[in-house]
User: What shape does this take?
Amino acid sequence: SQTIHQWPATLVQPVGSPLSLECTVEGTSNPNLYWYRQAAGRGLQLLFYSVGIGQISSEVPQNLSASRPQDRQFILSSKKLLLSDSGFYLCARGVTDGYTFGSGTRLTVV
Amino acid sequence: KNEVEQSPQNLTAQEGEFITINCSYSVGISALHWLQQHPGGGIVSLFMLSSGKKKHGRLIATINIQEKHSSLHITASHPRDSAVYICAVSGTYKYIFGTGTRLKVLA
Assistant: This one.
C-alpha cells in the first residue's frame, strides 16, 4: 500500500496564527516526499521536497517551512500565516511507478 | 512561457463524445504523468509513461518524445469524467505541472 494520510481536510486560520499540516505515508521506506500548493485557479506549485529524514529542499522562498522528523512523516509549518498562504495543500510521494497524492488540506487564512 | 503547457484550458463536451487533451513540454524528462483532480481537490494518478501509448478502460495516453508532446484521450465520455486533468513531467526528483484542463461532460 502506498497510502498517504493528510490532515486536516479543511482549516480556517486567522492571519498571524501558526500552522502545522501533517502527512504520513505507508508503504516502502525512504520515500521521496513533496508538499505542493494550489492557489485558486492555478496549477500545482512545488513548495518542498525531501529525499530522507531531516533532508528538506525548498523550491520557492516563502512564509512556510517543512520538516521530516521520521521516515514516513512530513510536516508543513508556518510561524505566522499570511492571507497569501490560503490555498489547497497536497502532500505526495514519488515512487518509480508513479506518484501518489494525499487528499489535501484546504487552508483559508482570514 | 511555462515549461508544461496544456490545451485547451477549458473543455465542455456532450456525453459520448471523444475527447482529446494535449500537453507540450520544453524540458528533458524521465516520464510524463496524467493526473485527474476531482472537484473536492483529491488527485488520482491516471498514467505514467515514458514512451508509446497506454490504455486503461476508456482512457488512452500517448507520448511523442521527439516532439515533446503527449495527449490524453477519453472515449465515450461520461459526466463522471468531469474533472481537471493535469499533465506533469518528472526529472530526477521534481515534477513540473501544467495548469490543467477543466473538463465538463454534459448528460
Remarks:
- The interface with chain A takes residues 33, 35, 41-45, 48, 86, 88, 90, 93-95, 97-100 of chain B (CB under 8 Å).
- Chain B has a mean pLDDT of 91.
